[in-house]
Amino acid sequence: MGTTMNYIISELVRSSDYFYADEDKQREITVKLLAEAFQFHRDNNKYYRELCELNAAMDLTVESIADISRIPLVDINQFKQADSAKLLSVRLSEIEFEMRSTGTTGTPSISRRDHITCNNALALLGGLYREFFKVVNGVGIYFSTSPEEMPEMGMIKALNFLNAGFDAHDFLVRGVSFDHQRAIDDIEKWEGKFTRYFAGAPFLLNMFLDYLKLNNKKLKLDKNSLIITLGGWKRYTGIQISREEMAEKCREYLGVDAGQIRDMYGLVECNTLAIECEHNVKHIPATAYMSIRSMENPLTEVNDGEHGLVAILDPSSHSYPSFILTEDIGVMERAKKCECGRCSDTIRIIGRAPKSETGCCAVRLDRQMNEEQDQE
Asked: What is the pLDDT of residue 283?
């Protein structure tokens, strides 16, 4: 994989271009990248090689999309085990950064990234953010804590990449406290000076909207403003946040329409994000592969339009095999031609599998903030 890494990086930089390429070209890129990544991890990772032996994949050569479904998947819960370092395909001394996510049980999921994986993440996210958000100036109003306070939190790290395009920014969570008035002051002081962008966890944005509603306070964002969300739509208590109700509150109290609300889907354990376009369709870049697996037999892919467990295969991870079976339930469409002009596989997340832990960075932040409030 090292000998072809320059090729892989160049393709990740061009990831946004492939939304406008024909299906055959997109499939060619997907297969090429995953073939290289699969061979590297099988050759260099004892744990993954044993997994391949168990799944009769030692002789697998990835030459087509059909072959991808035979790539063995790593259960998401393996990243929470005490011996999660076994997942590494490189030496532990080569790790530059550990990213963490904690769900309702408090058990952290740890994903370790080496130099190459970090390079790939920067190339990929930079291209995707530019493609979908077009941010080159403006201000970022973050409904989250800052990377300074929680540098290991994956959600915050991913959102912080947006700062490359902002002229100014503010993180509204200090410690574990959210100041509603500070958010209002930010919105008002930058009015007419910069395009104002919101970015953060859905639960915090929804909390702020409820505050505006309670106080009958109506604000007006800009015509090019975007509300970018990342993290689960379920509270740490298990209560589901309604996307439709939140969109209506955004319209009434912030003056934005549904097309200005852009949700993203991804895992701390992956570099890849599926990002919504202006029609609220989540597009999957050709430089990764997602599929929906049968709830009864995760080795089997279901048909388009059927729900099941989401599998994410991300070839940009060099430090460990990011071929992951999640606990999320979703529905996909292959090679969908969207009204936005992009063509890609698309995904819609329905919820979590029964009995799975409610888990993501947003849940951890939500729980900590509420525990602090209870103590006060």
From this structure: 97
Work out the pLDDT band at 19, boundaries 50, 70, 90.
very high
The residue among 177, 180, 107, 154 whose CA lies nearest residue 371 is 177
- Using DSSP bridges, classify how beta strands 308-313 and 289-293 pair: parallel, antiparallel or unpaired: antiparallel
Beta bridge mates, 143: 200
Between CA 41 and CA 169 the distance in angstroms is: 39
From the list 128, 59, 157, 115, the residue with the least C-alpha distance to 285 is 128
The whole-angstrom distance between residue 228's C-alpha and the CA centroid of its chain comes to: 12
Contact 228, 182 (CB under 8 A): no
Q: pLDDT tens-digit profile of 239-272?
A: 788 999 999 999 999 999 999 999 999 999 999 9
Residue 101 has pLDDT above 80, yes or no: no
Tokens representing residue 288 in the block: 């990764």
> pTM of this prediction?
0.90
**Which backbone phi and psi does 62 adopt, to 5 degrees?**
-85, 110
Cβ 329 vs Cβ 310: under 8 Å: yes
Give the contacts of 332 (CB within 8 A, at least 6 positions apart): 290, 291, 292, 304, 345, 346, 347, 348
Kindly report the number of other CB atoms within 10 A of residue 215's CB atom. 11
321 in Cβ contact with 314 (< 8 Å) = no
| Residue 79: partners with Cβ closer than 8 Å, 6 or more residues away | 87, 109, 110, 111, 269
Nearest 5°: the CA angle 90, 95, 96 is 150
Distance, first Cα to last Cα, the chain: 53
Point out the least confidently predicted range of 10-14, 78-82, 138-142: 10-14
Burial group, residue 238, by CB count within 10 angstroms (0-12, 13-18, 19+): exposed
DSSP track, 142-200 = EES--TTT-TTBHHHHHHHGGGGG-SEEEE-EETTEE-HHHHHHHHHHTTTTS-EEEEE
